[in-house]
Specification:
Layout: E1 3-9, E2 29-40, E3 46-53, E4 68-74, H1 76-91, E5 104-108, H2 113-116, H3 140-158, E6 161-170, H4 172-183, E7 190-194, H5 200-215, E8 222-228, H6 240-255, E9 261-267, H7 275-287, H8 295-300, H9 304-316, H10 324-335, H11 339-352, H12 357-370, H13 373-386, H14 391-402
Parallel strand pairs: 4-5, 4-6, 6-7, 7-8, 8-9
Antiparallel strand pairs: 1-2, 2-3, 3-5
Helix pairs in contact: 1-7, 5-6, 10-11, 11-12, 12-13, 13-14
């Protein structure tokens, strides 16, 4: 696998340093992600590039390294910036917002889009006439096999991932996510179909929906479908693209006994091209409904934090827990207001992240300030055992023991 750095020049956001040299203003580059690649056996030796975003905390050297859910994104070069931006603003605690978990994003650019994102081979267009441009259609099965058997294992081996995965696609990519739900449901936990091309091959996926939704087991699986306004005044009955999505929604409502959690939203002010961004936002909020942390409640009652994530894990069918940074942030807020609650948070951190020396050190500092010398010494000793090179904690321990 080859790796190179993908940069987004920020010329429009250039910062002029007050101490700029005679050569002019300092210039900055913002790293959005990396470009990686694999050589696919499934796709007959084709080299497939993919873009990878890791959240800001991924390379944090202060707290215990954590693992992250992964969002796989089709038409990756088109939607990479919008999706990574949404996840960063919703998941990293900006303005106190923890509405979704921090996630890794793996975006898959296209090579032969029609081949990869059509479930069946067709030779005629919607007008029934032969269309040579459709000759490569029908390769979706191989494309999904590449994602499942080659791309996901490559990502899991190289990055710190959890098994929770989200699959997002627009248009033909939208029917790719639905077909993945039908055929490889074990691969992803949540599926997002943005204005999907359900008209494909005489609505083949729509015609299959009833059987899948009434017979298959999609417990703990999520599907969100966003529909754009693609109507014109004279095609309210003949617009196959528009009507196929309405019919799919009706089938889900009538026959879904599979356990699938389904969300549908119509966007009357958006067309096929503008609908992805708003759907991506709504889909993330729907998938992770209930994830959003109530910071005020957590500060008022530290026990709320583990209870909250226990409920989140039950709802999503996968384990989720607060990051060490989140727990320590809450503890830091509590230190100046309620020492007992700060202690609860730091003790929680030692249980969740027992190999991290920081929380033991902070507990030692708190108990030292409280005048509880034995407890302070005990916590400092545990911190040093985990990080013998921490001379700062060692000096605090030596001072206490010398008293």
């Amino acid at each position: 696998m080859r790796t190179s750095t993908l940069f987004a020049p920020v010329a429009l956001l250039a910062l002029v340093a007050s101490s700029a040299s005679a050569q002019g203003a300092d210039r900055y580059r913002l790293t959005i992600g990396t470009v990686d690649s694999l050589k696919s056996t499934v796709l007959n030796g084709e080299t497939r590039k993919f873009l990878v975003y890791t959240p800001p905390s991924y390379n944090d050297t202060v707290y215990t390294p954590q693992r992250y859910p992964v969002l796989y994104l089709l038409d990756g070069d088109a939607h990479f910036h919008s999706v990574t931006g949404l996840i960063q603003i919703l998941g990293t605690g900006v303005n106190g917002t923890y509405a979704v978990p921090e996630m890794i994003v793996v975006a898959i650019p296209n090579t032969n889009r029609l081949r990869d994102m059509s479930p069946t081979k067709v030779t005629a267009g919607l007008d029934g006439k032969p269309n040579p441009g459709l000759a490569s259609s029908g390769g979706m099965g191989n494309f999904l096999a590449m994602i499942k058997n080659e791309l996901i294992p490559a990502v899991d081996s190289k990055y710190r991932t959890t098994p929770y995965r989200v699959f997002v696609g627009h248009s033909l990519g939208g029917i790719t996510t639905i077909y993945a739900l039908y055929t490889i449901p074990e691969t992803f936990n949540a599926y997002v179909a943005i204005d999907p091309s359900l008209w494909w091959d005489n609505k083949v996926l729509l015609r299959q929906a009833k059987d899948h939704l009434s017979k298959d087991n999609y417990k703990d699986k999520v599907l969100f479908l966003g529909q754009a306004n693609t109507l014109s005044p004279d095609d309210t009955t003949t617009n196959q693209h528009f009507n196929a999505m309405l019919q799919f929604n009706e089938v889900v409502e009538a026959y879904n006994t599979s356990g699938l959690r389904f969300g549908y939203k119509y966007y009357p002010a958006d067309d096929h091209g503008s609908v992805p961004l708003i759907t991506e936002y709504d889909a993330l909020r729907f998938i992770f409904d209930g994830y959003k942390l109530n910071l005020a409640r957590a500060l008022a009652s530290p026990s709320y934090l583990p209870e909250h994530f226990k409920a989140v894990s039950a709802r999503l069918g996968a384990p989720f827990q607060p990051s060490e940074a989140m727990v320590n942030t809450l503890a830091g807020f509590a230190v100046g207001q309620d020492t007992a609650k700060a202690i609860q948070f730091y003790e929680m951190a030692t249980q969740l992240y027992p190999k991290s020396f920081r929380s033991f050190d902070r507990l030692g500092t708190i108990y030292s300030a409280k005048g509880d010398k034995p407890k302070a010494i005990g916590y400092f000793q545990q911190s040093i055992a985990l990080n013998p090179s921490n001379t700062f904690t060692a000096s605090k321990l030596k001072q206490l023991q010398g008293q």
